[in-house]
Specification:
CATH architecture: 3-Layer(aba) Sandwich
Strand order of the largest sheet: 1-4-5-3-6-7-2
Helix content: 25-40%
CATH class: Alpha Beta
Strand content: 15-25%
Shape: globular
Amino acid sequence: MARSPGSAILAGARSPGSAILAGALATEPGPAYSGRAELKWVAPELRVLDDSPADLLVLHAFSDERPLSGLAGLVDWRLAGALSSWRIGGFSTGAFGERVLYPTGRRLSHPRLLFVGLGRRAEYRSDRALGVAADVIEAARGLGIRTLTTGLFHLEALASPLERVGPKLVHMLRSGSGLERVTIAADEEATRLVKDGIQFFGR
């Protein structure tokens, strides 16, 4: 399995046979943030991301998602096909729970990218989405991340009403230990549904 230069499989990833880099990526976790993280909504566009810097950009994709779509596809284009090349070379498969950390240099306003596998689309459910989000929060804490940008972990692709499960995801992200700001990149309709759910269910 060829390893992409500068990238690594985070320890604890569930992808069988993945190379594990233990210790090298971890930093001392910062002190727990006592309040809820600030929440910001942005459009899933590169120019908007450029104007909304954060410590970490979280991208996610299904193992059978070809080609990469949405924000992951846009970022892949900005990175000259780096994410696609991982898949072609077998470095990253998108298996459920897989996490790849990648330094972006100056190509994005986010110095580090965390690419997360969601497994097969047909097997994906809202409880899996929330589980992946919890893993991301834990990884961010271990890396000392204060601000992050993420999508909705493909909740908008599920049959479950987004206005019901979306607020649970937002609450989980905002409650993450050490996080001071969470930026969610989502289209207008998904943003409206989640916001309506937050208002109705009080999350």
